[in-house]
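Weekly sync, protein design subgroup
Attendees: M.S., D.O., the rotation student, P.L. (late)

Item 1: inverse folding check
M.S. brought a backbone from last month's batch and wanted to see whether the design step gives back something sensible before we order anything. D.O. pointed out we never logged the input encoding, so this time it goes straight into the notes. Structure tokens as presented (290 positions):
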């Protein structure tokens, strides 16, 4: 693509600068337009000084945006706002949405978990869930891609291949996840203050975390029946990173080695998924690398 268009809001600045950092050095992308709300009129280097070496356009208001040099759009807006924005974009644009607005196919389920009506049901019908390693062919043909959530990515990558190969049972799946604090965005929140999270760990969103329906949707698709999970997320005193530990029932006649070998074969050619050597998995320092 020749150009990229960014929609930015202060609540998702972390996702925004990560995309800018990656695409600014990408051989096939060029950043031609960036829009903002509260940061409109500012340069990227004034918001993120570590990107000062990049030749980036100044952020402007979306109402002043010219899409003539844009081929692809990356939306970094809070949940509940992207649907209305995307409805007004030119149909020829390829779109990747980083919010949760198009992840859940069931509109009623979206409204239940996110507490507001879905304002773009027609767009929802064409949205493709963007877990590339699992749905690569569908993503290739998609115009609108719903970027997966953080927890669902860490959980589905190991579980989907094992379920698809009937190596694990579809019931009694327990998931214990740990996350760094930057996943909550850059907005000022009391629960994310240094004095609140430093030197501690706590569970949150117990039984009602918004990523539960997304996780269960992906696993149910593979199982071709309703799958429910027991999911408990925890906030860790670190800026970024995530670890998910999953407890499953192995199918009759299957061994732990079978699970390992299958995951290694599935991801041997994937650039962004690394299955550690068995010996490395016992090393704390090695496991921290991925």
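Designed sequence read out in the meeting:
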């Amino acid at each position: 693509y020749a150009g990229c268009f960014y929609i930015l809001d202060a609540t998702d600045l972390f996702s925004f600068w990560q995309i800018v950092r990656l695409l600014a050095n990408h051989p096939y992308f060029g950043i031609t337009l960036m829009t903002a709300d509260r940061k409109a009129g500012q340069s990227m280097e004034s918001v993120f000084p570590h990107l000062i070496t990049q030749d980036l356009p100044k952020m402007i208001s979306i109402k002043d945006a010219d899409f003539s040099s844009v081929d692809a759009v990356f939306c970094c807006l809070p949940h509940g706002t992207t649907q209305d924005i995307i409805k007004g974009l030119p149909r020829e644009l390829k779109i990747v949405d980083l919010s949760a607005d198009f992840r859940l196919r069931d509109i009623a389920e979206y409204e239940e978990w996110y507490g507001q009506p879905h304002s773009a049901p027609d767009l929802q019908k064409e949205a493709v869930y963007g877990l590339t390693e699992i749905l690569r062919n569908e993503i290739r043909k998609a115009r609108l891609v719903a970027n997966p959530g953080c927890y669902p990515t860490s959980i589905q990558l190991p579980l989907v291949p094992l379920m698809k190969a009937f190596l694990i049972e579809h019931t009694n799946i327990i998931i214990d996840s740990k996350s760094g604090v930057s996943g909550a965005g850059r907005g000022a929140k009391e629960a994310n203050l240094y004095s609140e999270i430093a030197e501690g760990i706590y569970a949150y969103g117990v039984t009602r975390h918004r990523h539960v329906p997304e996780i269960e949707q992906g696993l149910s698709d593979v199982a071709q029946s309703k799958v429910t999970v027991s999911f408990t997320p925890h906030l860790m005193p670190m800026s970024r990173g995530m670890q998910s530990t999953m407890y499953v029932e192995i199918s009759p006649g299957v061994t732990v080695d079978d699970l390992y070998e299958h995951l290694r074969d599935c991801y041997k050619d994937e650039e962004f998924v690394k299955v550690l050597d068995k010996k490395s998995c016992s090393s704390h320092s090695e496991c921290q690398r991925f």
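Discussion: Residues 284-290 have pLDDT under 50 and may be disordered. The chain has two domains: 4-148, 151-287.
Action: P.L. to compare against the previous round before Friday.
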